[in-house]
Amino acid sequence: MITKKEVQHIAKLARLNMTPREEERFAKELSSILKYIEKLKEIDTSKVEPTSHPFEIKNVMRKDIPRCSDIETVQKLLKAAPLREKTYIKVKAILKHSE
């Protein structure tokens, strides 16, 4: 059981102002949480694989296939671009090059 003195210490560390009634309530609630954690420690998890997510998820990727290789369309797009180099559209760098 967590004492009121321990609750006061935690409240001081967290810079919380608490009334005596709140201290009493939090002592009961924190004690209840710690009891639950102790109960969880009894569970055998030695055969459980560590995981970062409760569900098995996979990143779905699609192939990067150009949809339109029509030369006229490509030329129109390149003409519309403010900056270009050969058949590439130039854009401002967003990352700084460091050596």
Would you summarize the structure shown here?
The protein is mostly helical and 99 residues long. The protein has three helices and two strands, in the order H-H-H-E-E.
Overview of this protein structure:
By secondary structure, the chain is mainly alpha-helical. The protein has a domain at 4-41: Orthogonal Bundle (Histone, subunit A), CATH 1.10.20.60. 42% of the residues lie in helices and 4% in strands. The chain is built from 3 helices and 2 strands, in the order αααββ. It has a two-stranded antiparallel ribbon. A hairpin with a 2-residue loop joins strand 1 and strand 2. The model has no long low-confidence stretch (mean pLDDT 88).
Number of strands: 2
Q: What is the average per-residue confidence, as pLDDT, rounded to a whole number?
A: 88
Q: What percent of the residues sit in helical stretches (DSSP H or I)?
A: 40-55%
Evaluate the radius of gyration: 31 Å
Question: Count of DSSP helices?
Answer: 3
What is the name of the CATH architecture of the domain at 4-41? Answer: Orthogonal Bundle
- The run of helices and strands is HHHEE
CATH topology label of the domain at 4-41: Histone, subunit A
Class based on secondary structure composition and strand pairing: mainly alpha
Strand content: under 5%
Tell me, what is the CATH class of the domain at 4-41? Answer: Mainly Alpha
Q: What profile does the largest beta sheet have?
A: 2 strands, antiparallel
CATH superfamily of the domain at 4-41: Glu-tRNAGln amidotransferase C subunit, N-terminal domain
Based on Cα principal axes, name the global outline.
elongated
Give the termini distance in whole angstroms. 58 Å
**Low-pLDDT residue spans:** none
Strand order of the largest sheet: 1-2
